[in-house]
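May I ask for a protein sequence together with how it folds?
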Amino acid sequence: MAHKKGAGSSTNGRESHSKRLGIKVYGGQFAQSGNIIARQRGTVHHPGLNVGMGKDHTLFALIDGIVEFKKKKDARSYVSIIPLEQQDTVKN
């Protein structure tokens, strides 16, 4: 007698959903307080001035301002927010 597999089983369907990681607000762009700047696994980018880090290493803006990415002497990438009031003095 032939054996048939029960109906409803699926050989596919085990893939996990994509996690939507990466940079959400790029350098030179405006970020409001609370905006997510980057979602990452581990500290690819480190928090700088006016940037906070969540328990899953998500970087977010603490104040309104312009996003700035910089590499320091330790070869790490740091993300900072420059306040709009300070933006005028930096350009002049």
